[in-house]
Each structure stands twice: as C-alpha cells, then as structure tokens.
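hey so i finaly got around to running the thing on Mycofactocin system transcriptional regulator from Flexivirga alba. pasting the sequence first so u can double check i didnt mess up the copy paste, my clipboard has been acting weird all day
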Amino acid sequence: MTTTSPRPGVGRPVVTSHAEIERVAFRLFAEKGFVGTTLEDIAQAAGIGRRTLLRYYRSKNDIPWGQFDDTLDEFRNTLRTFDDRPLHEAVHLAVIEFNRFPAEAMAEHRVRMRLILTTPELQAHSVLRYADWRHVIAEYVAERTGSDPSALLPQTASQVALSLSMAGYGEWLSNDDTDLSTVLEQALRTLHGYLGV
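ok and heres what it spat out for the 3d tokens, dont ask me to read them lol
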C-alpha cells in the first residue's frame, strides 16, 4: 500500500510499504554503510516520518531481516509438508525450501545476507532472529518425537540445521557462481560424510 501525497518539504511520494522502505534503506547502507545510516536518514529518503518508519520496523537492526516473522509462519507450514519423510530429512528439505528464492530475487537476497552475516553491529540482533528460527524447528521435532521443544533432541536438531545453513551461506556468499539450494544440499551430504553415515 502506498500513498501519493508528499510530506511537506519532501519532493517525492510517501513510501508506505515494507519493500519500498527496504529498497531505500539498502541503497543508503550501500552508500553510507550500515553504521553511518540513521533511521532519520531512511525516513527522510523514503519521504516518511521517523515515527511512521518505526511502525514498520522496531529498529534499524530489523530492516535487513525484512518481514522475518511472516517467513517463520511459512517455514512452519513447509515443515509439515515433509511429515512423510524421516525426521532429519524433513527438517533439511524444509530448510532448503525456506531458502529457495526466484532467480530474479537472488542478487537482492545475496546483498541482504551479506549485510546480515558480515556486519558486526547486527550480530547481537541476529542471535535473536536465529533463536526464533531455531525454535520453529525445535517445535516441529518435538511434535514428531513426542518431546518438549526444550529437550535435547529438538535443541540439537535446531542447532545442527542452523550450523548447516550458516556453512552453506558462507560458501554461497564467497562464490557468486554457486547455487544456494545446491550448496545447502551439499552441506548435509558433507555432514553425513563426517559422521560416517
């Protein structure tokens, strides 16, 4: 949803969508760096007030993560589509699907993930986001094994899934010619080889 009436003193239409705000923010991050970009900078460039910006994102640190909470709901649904698979396979297949994007979105996703994974000022916030993501897996594993999400198996499964994803993303970001889904599949095969499975 966008509005077309400009804010006084701003010679552009007011932006009121997550996608547009993120586009503006990432342009500023590229120009001024993450640390050098303020919420005021983003709001001004988007043609909105700081208070309006904070209705979309609780903090600057949330902007690189986009609408992450919505993607977690999709992740829960994706996990359930693999109920007929062995548990470890279901989790890994769901992780691959969670990280599957249209070809035209991959360049933007690469920029987003490079910012998240390489910006020291985002690391503490990212830990919270990773915990939310891991909790979705822990809940699923607990449901399938009749245990509690805080039990050792669900927690281990969620940590392993995150580690495989992080390793896959590291490989993907270091080589522009790699395919993300393929790298994530290779990460699981590498783990199997390491464990002698």
